Amino acid sequence: MASSRSFAFTEDWVVVILGLATIFLALSGVVAPVPSFSWGDSAELVSTIADSANMAKLGQQFIFVFATAVLGAWLLGKSVRSLLVVFPVVFVLTVLALILAGNATVKEYNLEAVIFSLAVGLLISNCFKLPDWFKEALSTELYVKIGLILLGTTVIFGDILKAGSLGLIQALAVVLSVWYFAFWICKKLKIDKEMSLMLSSAVSICGVSAAIATSGAIKGDSKKLSYVISLVLITAIPMMIFMPYMAEWMGLSQEVTGAWLGGSIDTTGAVVASGSLVGEEALKISTIVKFSQNVLLGLAAFAISIYWTYAKSVDEETKRDKPTLKIIWERFPKFVLGFVFASLLFSFVISPEKVDAVKGSLKNLQGLWFTLAFTSIGLETNFKDLFVQDNKKPLYAFLIAQTFNVAITLLIALLLFR
Predict the structure, then answer these.
(1) Where are the transmembrane segments (predicted)?
(2) Which of 112, 146, 150, 310 is the most buried (most CB within 10 A)?
(3) Segments forming the whole domain that contains residue 81
């Protein structure tokens, strides 16, 4: 089932081509429809999700991403015939995960679709022996990186001005202090650099998206990424529930509480949910602070890419010699350029009206590519690889860093919003 092509592009350039093609198609009017996966009970499941109009949207979306995946396989010189079998299976499993995540009760606990897609994939791969050709057709990194380029369209630099100076100051202070503390803790616990970078970014910036962006920038191990994301999602639930009550017990104002929640809780959904428990002002401030952190994701991913490229060049290529610009360029993850380009395009070139017209579809596609990637990770992963003895140190590092995050964010919130 080998490809018949005599040459192939590198994966990063293929990602740039596919990601930007998706964006420009949307801007030209070819917008992928957004199917609904929200439901509360079995009756609504049938009437909303299984509705013919919604199924038609789902079918159109499948054709769109299927064509993108096939083109990607062809450009990479991979087997297209294998993908014709594998991708529909991955898509169906991903849709199942999206339906599970769309349940109203599940949403209350802020359990994201990626955790369900990972679980579904793991269940199948550990109950059935998948053939090698099936696993070889899975393109986890390709899907993640396409999603990351689309993520760039949501990082609008102009929006940071709307967040207010205090929100930006807090976001910068929290991200920098927590990131360096988390990385220092990981170093003290002798955790490898890959895990350290992903964990530090997840704790300090914006949880799942930051972990995925960092993993893409450093070409990280998908199993380590899955572990970090699991930690983020699991810890977000008790924080979302108990921190508002802790704030009330401490007698914090809504402004301080909102800043504390927005800077401490790693997932945007959990921030909104916890802010809503406190009040309108807390919800507003928490959203502003979290949004400011989200905007910093692009800068962080770019900085991490440069750091990792340089560090890896020193370690592997040049030993004690200074790495050349050529080596740095060869190792630099080119998809980051697509991410930055998309962000700059939507920040300074595309009109706000046009951005509003396409952002829903692109955001939905971004989430779909991420979920497809985690279904693929599950299908190629053994349970034992996720929960091994060595994973205790990252767990300790994450909990210590998260505790520091909660404390330092409260201090900064008191200084800025009191």
Answers:
(1) 12-38, 58-76, 83-101, 142-161, 167-185, 197-218, 224-247, 291-311, 332-350, 395-417
(2) 146
(3) 11-417
